[in-house]
Amino acid sequence: MRGIWAILAFFFMSSPALAAKGPFLSLSNTDFVVLIAFVLFIGVLIYFKVPNLILGMLDKRAETIQDELDAARLVREDAKQVLATLERRQGEVQEQAKKIVEAAQREAADVLAQGKEDIQSSIIRRLAVVEEQISAAEAAVIRDMKNEAVRIAVSVAREVIAAELTDIETSGRIDSSIAEVEQHLV
């Protein structure tokens, strides 16, 4: 209502330079006709309760906006909860990954230690086998040397005996010597 009185006061108190020519309360004065049309327009608006409709629409819009703000707050709170859950899960996953890496490192160290032990035991076994082979080879060489020495001794003995004895005596003695040597070799 204040707005209407302000508009009316403007028209009635306006300077004569702004008014149309002629008396103000005449239908030939355009300012007066515009004023009447404006007052009738405002009256029609009030009669049909347009200001209440506009206020109702504004109230509905304000309620809609408030509902949207409330929904946005709920969504924000939900997002905060989801973020907190995800951060907690991320921490748990990082902790699990850290444990897995530590377990893998421990297992790798155990496998490495076991591998070292296996290699050392394998080397020890191979050294033992090689030492046995060396001992066997030494024994074979010594046996071969003894056999060769016996063969040489028998050969030398034959020559010496052959030179000293006659053929008949020699063959009897040689046969007995060979038999005796064979008994020692076996």
Global structural class: mainly alpha
Number of strands: 0
State the separation between the terminal residues, measured CA to CA: 148 Å
Contiguous helical run count:
4
Mean pLDDT: 83
> How large is the share of residues in beta strands?
under 5%
Unreliable stretches = none
Q: Describe the biggest sheet?
A: none
Q: N-to-C SSE series?
A: HHHH
Helix content: over 70%
Task: Categorize the overall geometry.
Answer: rod-shaped
Radius of gyration: 66 Å
Can you describe what's shown?
The protein is mainly α. It is 88% helix and 0% strand. The protein is built from four helices and no strands. It has helices spanning 2-12, 30-47, 50-164, 167-185. Helix 3 runs antiparallel to helix 4 (167-185). The longest helix is centred in the middle third of the chain and has 115 residues, at 50-164. The chain is rod-shaped and about 190 Å long. The mean pLDDT is 83.
